[in-house]
Amino acid sequence: RHDMTPHHLLFRSKGVTDDPFNMAGDCLWCHLEGIHGGRITVTGTADDMTWTIGRKHPLRVEGRELITPDSS
User: Fold this and answer.
1) pTM assigned to the model
2) SS3 assignment, position 23
3) What SS3 class is residue 2?
4) Of 7, 9, 18, 64, which one is least surrounded by beta carbons within 10 A?
């Protein structure tokens, strides 16, 4: 994609480095509106990320596997 942006999985504001384990490439919308806008959460390391999409009953994606959302 032409609109890829670098994303720190653990934010630099928390004192974490630019090491490869902490870097991911996200499209511009997912990065700014999704992650920084609070709609998407990404955890893990660059080679093992878990994406949580949504606020109230989020979808979770681990690797390529969709995890059924909680009912909480």
Assistant:
1) 0.65
2) strand
3) coil
4) 64
| 44 burial via Cβ count (<10 Å: 0-12, 13-18, 19+) | middle
Q: CA-CA distance, 6 to 65, in Å (whole number)?
A: 24
- Backbone φ and ψ for 68, nearest 5 degrees, come out as -60, 135
Measured from the Cβ of residue 34, the count of other Cβ atoms closer than 10 Å reads: 19
Q: What confidence tens digit (pLDDT) does each residue in 31-65 have?
A: 999 988 888 988 888 889 888 888 766 777 888 88
How far is the CA of 53 from the CAs of 17, 30, 36, 49, 59, in angstroms?
25, 10, 13, 13, 5
Residue with tokens 């997912």: 30
DSSP string, 36-72: TTTSEEEEEETTEEEEEE-SSS-EEEETTEEEPPP--
